[in-house]
TrEMBL record:
Stretches for region Disordered: 1-21
Protein name: Membrane metallo-endopeptidase-like 1
Species lineage: Eukaryota, Metazoa, Ecdysozoa, Scalidophora, Priapulida
PANTHER family in the cross-refs: NEPRILYSIN-LIKE 4, ZINC METALLOPROTEASE FAMILY M13 NEPRILYSIN-RELATED
One Pfam family of this chain: Peptidase_M13_N
Length: 500
């Protein structure tokens, strides 16, 4: 640490300047001692002279001092309300530490669980981002502007409600429409594998999960992974165990309600109910997949699989069972109804209030929430999940000075150097092994706070090249889904970027 200059006077997180902290360290030292002879006395001799062991104790340390200070702080600190002093910490430490908080804290109606971490995230992240995303005159880069535009479009419920179901109807029409609400649906034009592949190409993973990730056996290269699908209900036990029937019924109501909201052709409700029952029955079974057709449509047009392409099957037993679990007697209409229902389920929250209300009624049963989240909370989460690096810059600009990152990086460099010195001094390690150890230390990639590139508007904007945002919330969600799917798939066979 440097004495003098701005670094010496700069305030640290605890309120003391770095100079004050350095002075405290100097007082703890005994400069009259030779550190090569007795490093402990050199580093702590001053503290030992100034701190006498209290008569009631047989040892004393800086931790003892911290304990006393903490006890003082607790008397005026909110932390005191968290504990349950009536409980013996040796018998039930959790209840002793958290009993007061558990007794006095009520889970908010819009959450399924609650904790101090959630509470801190609310204060330190969500509300900060809300304020920053609502700042209209803070242009820094195109990507940060996109973040604010996406948030504004998400918050514009008047525009979203005015469009009603039209955005979803138009989107599904690109894939042949949803049979249960489309009276002139053309079964002969429906190729389930082509539709599934095309939907995966725009980010919808139905009946199969496909991702490009680093190879588990060669982490420098990205390869293709295939996995078993998720279901409309979050767990297969919901379908199989009688005690979970209330969840299946809520799911059935949710699907039927969504279909009725999209039923602009006034199709008979009984017919829709029958189609819903068929979809739920189908969802417990697995359809035969034409891999060549599926992959041809799921991958970008200019990316073709090679004959010897390496593909990781994350659930081999699932894929082994495919040929033994072919669907017999299931019509193309039922398959199409299921596929389009999963599209509806994935996008309904982005439509008008009627669809959001239907989704909430379902979530009340499945997750136990009692009220929907405030719109701004959901919109902050949407933007944060999709434009994470751009939102990240907005956040660090508000609360994370660059000096904090520099200080942490300096500390890590000291640790790295010290470790390398220790390795060199080991008499039991051979020189070739020491060399490998040093190389491993040098190969460690530091991830402190945020990647440096997000502080440069040019490189940050390059991160989102090809993505655009408008005032149409539903359109933004679909465009991002398609853009991100293309981005990930085009990483196939490419080296892994360790900076991200």
């Amino acid at each position: 640490m440097e004495r003098g200059g701005d670094n010496y006077r700069e305030k640290g997180k605890g309120g003391k300047s770095h100079g004050q902290k350095a002075d405290q360290l100097l007082r703890n030292m005994d400069p009259m001692q030779d550190p090569c002879e007795n490093f402990y006395e050199y580093a702590c001799g001053g503290w030992l002279k100034d701190n006498i062991i209290p008569e009631e104790d047989f040892i004393y340390s800086t931790f003892s001092g911290l304990k006393l200070q903490l006890e003082k702080d607790l008397k005026t600190n909110r932390l005191l309300t968290f504990i349950n002093p009536d409980v013996d910490p040796c018998s039930d430490f959790y209840e002793y530490v958290c009993g007061g908080w558990s007794r006095t804290t009520v889970i908010p109606d819009d959450l399924t669980s609650h904790s101090l971490i959630v509470e801190m995230s609310e204060q330190n992240t969500l509300k900060v981002l809300k304020a920053e995303l609502e700042e209209e005159n803070d242009h820094w880069s195109n990507s940060t502007d996109m973040s604010r535009d996406m948030y504004a479009a998400c918050m514009d419920t008047d525009a979203i409600n005015a469009k009603q179901e039209a955005p979803l109807v138009d989107f599904m029409a690109m894939f042949g429409g949803w049979p249960m609400v489309t009276p002139d649906w053309n079964e002969s034009a429906f190729d389930p594998f082509a539709v599934l592949g095309k939907l995966r190409n725009v980010g919808f993973e139905i009946l199969l999960l496909m991702n490009v990730m680093p190879d588990s056996y060669n982490s420098s290269i990205n390869i293709l992974y295939l996995d078993q699908p998720t279901l409309g209900l979050s767990a297969r036990d919901y379908y199989l165990k009688p005690e979970n029937d209330k969840y299946v019924q809520a799911y059935r109501v949710y699907m039927r309600t969504s279909a009725m909201l999209l039923n602009t052709a006034a199709i008979d409700e009984a017919a829709i109910s029958k189609a819903v029952d068929d979809v739920i029955a189908f969802e417990t079974r697995i359809a035969e997949i034409d891999w060549d057709t599926y992959l041809a449509h799921a991958l970008p047009a200019d990316l073709k699989l090679e004959p010897q392409e390496k593909i990781i099957l994350k659930q081999p037993e699932f894929f082994k069972a495919f040929n033994e679990m072919l669907i017999q007697g299931v019509s193309a209409e039922v398959k199409a109804n299921y596929v389009m229902w999963r599209v509806v389920q994935s996008t309904a929250w982005n439509l008008d209030k009627r669809f959001r209300d239907a989704a909430f009624e379902y979530n009340m049963v499945v997750s136990g929430v009692q009220s929907p989240k405030a719109r701004w909370r959901d919109c902050v989460t949407v933007v944060q999940s999709k434009l994470g690096m751009a939102v990240g810059y907005i956040y660090i600009k508000a609360v994370f000075p660059e000096a904090y990152k520099a200080e942490a990086e300096k500390m890590i460099s000291y640790i790295r150097s010290a470790f390398k010195e220790i390795v060199e001094e080991l008499d039991w390690m051979t020189d070739p092994t020491k060399k490998v150890s040093q190389e491993k230390v040098d190969a460690i990639v530091e991830h402190i706070g945020y990647p440096d590139y997000i502080t440069d508007p040019v490189t940050l904007d390059a991160e989102y090249e090809g993505l655009s945002v408008s005032g149409d919330h539903f359109d933004n969600i679909i465009k991002y889904s398609q853009w991100s799917s293309l981005l990930y798939m085009t990483q196939l066979r490419k080296p892994v970027d360790e900076s991200k």
